[in-house]
Amino acid sequence: MSLYGQQDFDDWSSCPSRRQSTISTSTVSSASTSILFQSPATSPGSRKPSWQLYDDVVRLELNPYMTVSFLRNGQLFKLRYSYIDVCKDSSGALRCLELGGGLGQQTPFIHAFHGTKLPVPHLEHPKDSAEYPLRVSFLENQTIQTSQVVFMTQLSYKFENWEDCVSFQELLLCSKLIFIGGMAEAKSKGRGEECISQNLRILRGPNGKRVMLYFANSQRKDLKRYVSIPLNCVAHVKPPKKSGRPVAVDLNPNFDYLAQMRNLHIQFLDDNGQLRPAPA
């Protein structure tokens, strides 16, 4: 197993320097990058737009909007925006998200990324149920700037339609989301219970390599983490002999990080959040 991070993408998900996409309305080249935050002497209204600060900017136009929620000094804030600029430097590293188009908003809302580890957009509820909101969050506190105030907080993005939610994940992960399914439970031999009530995502990088991703949330605290499994590590997929039993996925044992997990048993959910009978 592998803790999901930048190292998992080095050989399969290196983004091209310019991402061409139907959701891109402002992919602009720049000769140099700039500092992320304003200096105290810079007035809020004078901050340059994102396409003048970064080498690669892709704009996600939202239909019709997205709501960002966060806590500040014990108070809950909910702000609506109509687009998200995904800003990267010359190496393709994600630098920040700039949210704009909000009613009455004079300055952008900035969600900054300082580390090299790729941030994983966390889906709070298993996909397949219309009762749950399309909310994406992050497991750790995030760096936020509103006007000239910079602070750390938990935040989430709530989308109004599934297409925007998917596009947001794909832009952050620089990969195509080709499958998502709600899991009731996933277990593996040698490690016991891996997760309950989670999503299983399969991502395809620009070079075609695919990775299976899920969040291990029901084991000890030190094992609560994202697990990524390249699909070329999958040896066999065994359908259950009886309806309602888990699907068994056998993994090749010749990878160091799979030494403790030779197979994985997955029980999926149906569209109503119930156990999905597996094909006989």
Give the SSE map:
Layout: E1 56-72, E2 75-88, E3 94-100, E4 109-112, E5 122-123, E6 134-137, E7 142-146, E8 149-153, E9 155-159, H1 162-173, E10 176-188, E11 192-204, E12 210-216, E13 225-230, E14 234-238, E15 247-251, E16 263-268
Antiparallel strand pairs: 1-2, 1-9, 2-3, 3-4, 4-7, 5-6, 6-9, 7-8, 10-11, 10-16, 11-12, 12-13, 14-15, 15-16
Description:
- Residues 1-26 are annotated as: Disordered.
- This protein has one helix at 162-173, and strands at residues 56-72, 75-88, 94-100, 109-112, 122-123, 134-137, 142-146, 149-153, 155-159, 176-188, 192-204, 210-216, 225-230, 234-238, 247-251, 263-268.
- The chain folds into two domains: 20-173, PH-domain like (Roll), CATH 2.30.29; 177-268, PH-domain like, CATH 2.30.29.
- It contains one helix and 16 strands.
- Helix content is 4%, strand content 42%.
- The strands form two sheets. The protein has a nine-stranded antiparallel sheet with strand order 5-6-9-1-2-3-4-7-8. Strands 13-12-11-10-16-15-14 form a seven-stranded antiparallel sheet.
- The longest helix is centred in the middle third of the chain and has 12 residues, at 162-173.
